Amino acid sequence: QVQLVESGGGLVQPGGSLRLSCAASGSIFSVRNMGWYCQAPGKQRELVASITSGGSTNYADSVKGRFTISRDNAKNTVYLQMSSLKPEDTAVYYCNNGFSPIWSWGQGTQVTVSS
């Protein structure tokens, strides 16, 4: 069973940046497709970025050019660098399997973009 711990969220002004981290326990992290999901108030959780074991990435149209997903297999950690943040990016951000969220959700990390 994989356990996930997200961190790095906070309050940031529009146009600002944040870097989220997700530490994953469990074996063979390096072969897992990993993803970042977000859930805004009143909306369904959705995938915003994913990265394969080989480092190939995919992004939702809403974050292309602004967010960058990366991973450090030695640390069992996946990151989400968020730049040019907009108020509509406000959400709780979670990590999980990038193909399908098959693992138990972590507590998530709140990102609030507001002036």
Description of the structure:
By secondary structure, the chain is an all-beta fold. The chain is built from no helices and ten strands. The protein has strands at 4-7, 10-12, 18-24, 34-39, 46-51, 57-59, 67-72, 77-82, 91-97, 109-113. The strands form two sheets. A six-stranded mixed beta sheet has the order 2-10-9-4-5-6, with no helix packed on it. A four-stranded antiparallel beta sheet has the order 1-3-8-7, with no helix packed on it. Strand 7 and strand 8 (77-82) form a beta hairpin.
What are the defining features of this structure?
115 residues, four-stranded antiparallel beta sheet, globular, single chain, mainly beta, 10 strands, six-stranded mixed beta sheet
Name the helix and strand elements from N-terminus to C-terminus, one letter apiece: EEEEEEEEEE
Structural class: mainly beta
Instruction: Average the pLDDT over all residues and give the rounded result.
Output: 94
Radius of gyration: 13 Å
- Poorly predicted runs are none
Give the number of DSSP strands. Answer: 10
- What is the makeup of the main sheet? 6 strands, mixed
Strand order, main sheet: write it out: 2-10-9-4-5-6
The percent range for strand residues is: over 45%
